Amino acid sequence: MNGQVAFYAIFFAAIFTNNILLTNYLGMCSFLAVSREVSTSAGLGTAVVFVMTATSVLNWLAYRYILVPLDLVYIRYIVFIVIIAAFVQLVEMVIERVSDKLYAALGIFLPLITVNCAILGVSLFMVIRNYTFVNSLFYGLGSGIGWALAIMAMAGIRQKMVRSRVPKGLAGAGITLIIAGIMALAFMGFSGMIKIT
Amino acid sequence: MGAAAQLLIGIGAICGVSTFLAVLMVIADATIANYGDVTVTINDEKQVTVAGGKPLLGSLMEEKIFIPSACGGRGSCGLCKVKVTSDVGDYLPTELPWISDEEKAENIRLSCQLKLKKDISIRIPEELFNVREYVTEVASLVDLTYDIKQVTLKLVEPDTISYRPGQYIQFQVPEYELTPESVYRAYSMSSQPSRGNEIELEVRLVPNGICTTYVFEHLREGDKVIVNGPYGEFFLRETDRDIVFIAGGSGMAPIKSILYTMAERENPRKARYFFGARAVRDLFLLDEMKDLETRLPGFTFIPALSDPQPEDNWKGETGLITEVLSKHVKSGDNLEAYLCGSPGMIDATVKVLLDTGIPEELIYYDKFA
Prior knowledge:
The complex is a heterodimer of chains A (197) and B (369).
Chain A: H1 7-17, H2 28-34, H3 38-67, H4 76-98, H5 100-106, H6 110-114, H7 117-128, H8 133-160, H9 173-188
Chain B: H1 3-31, E1 37-42, E2 46-51, H2 56-62, E3 81-84, H3 101-105, E4 108-110, E5 120-123, E6 132-143, E7 148-157, E8 168-173, E9 183-188, E10 198-204, H4 210-217, E11 224-231, E12 242-247, H5 252-264, E13 271-277, H6 286-295, E14 299-305, E15 317-318, H7 321-328, E16 335-341, H8 343-356, E17 363-367
Parallel strand pairs in B: 1-5, 12-13, 12-16, 13-14, 14-15, 16-17
Antiparallel strand pairs in B: 1-2, 3-4, 3-5, 6-7, 6-11, 7-10, 8-9, 8-11
Helix pairs in contact in B: 7-8
């Protein structure tokens, strides 16, 4: 569990070789539900990048300055989730106030993201792998970008597939999961290239 | 450190973090999310001032201006459209499925999704100002079948209501175990307007339904009920064409209202009412339908069972309503159709009707989800 891996290695790994969605298979539900069109996927992807980066930073600070000194590492699950939920609520309020355009583009996705397991997953991984502050920041940023990349790729594929004749039983979630599996297989080709644990 | 002390510190930390965040939320809610008072100008004349930050639909309802809504503000019926004449920002993704391109050009928005953040100016049809809130009292509750109740409400204040047969009202469900705040659900009136100071509804029990559970398990004779209305574009058109009615279960409500009014006016038009149900235990008001057949020479009631039980001894039509419909309606000439039921039933029967040659604009329906 070496925390001294270079931050750029972590950044690239989080996007490609250790993609939180296609390698760790986290964050599937919004991935399946929202990936119908590239434009909505881009909105959700942007929101995820922002929330993932910010919450991994906040959670790192909470971990390092509250949980560790008080020897309370075991309650990190509760504390992380509470911080994520509060943060997303605040962000939604601010965006709704400040920018109508931004709110229309991604405001309604924010409550969806609170329960996205990839967000909690990123925070927990950074704790397990003992990342430094800078590494956590880039891990969160990279994971968010990787997630956004995966959902936009899926949306592109599904948009192209609109005229295909999908077998009736597989329509919707079924064929999407199969495609996700094939994408994951493709990304498996990257495994082992960068060591980030 | 002792185990007890560790535990207390753990509890203290969780409470501390949660409290801190909760306080932050409260402050944010009072500052960032506080939009102050907002003035809504309606049709360039009426002005109301409401607390900002809430959707337009709810805020107007509090001011006794009732915009129609069948889903009570969830964004799943598309009925609460208003034309906005001031700038309110881009369309939200939740509105887009319900707004056509022509409506976009007119800046028509869904009032249940539009949050009031600054002063706004809107335009609504004048008829909506005739919509009123009525205080009523439950006069009777009669079980029509194992899952459909007939609810008769006596109007208290105001004590009369005028409406067209086929229109609906919104029934207010107060807060109780299934809902933390009052919600509205739309129900068609099965009474005809000549009954003056009372209205009748047919309510079908939906498992875990907020309103239906309230009606079936909590409502008693003498209870006070608030409704508002009337709303709706589902009513009999004044033409000479033959009529086909299609409605099953509680969908009979608007049809019953229309039929009774036809009987009162001795309307000679030929009408057939196809009532789809599963078995005999789903049939109701059969005597009333027979009575209508004698009063209206052109009217025939055709119940069709899709799953009759052996003990039913059913001698009438069997099969799905679409099959029975195809059997009886051969040609769409000189025909109008009025449908009331679930979106699935309506879509299926509309297809059958279009195949007979009825023009699409002569098929009227009341879809309820």
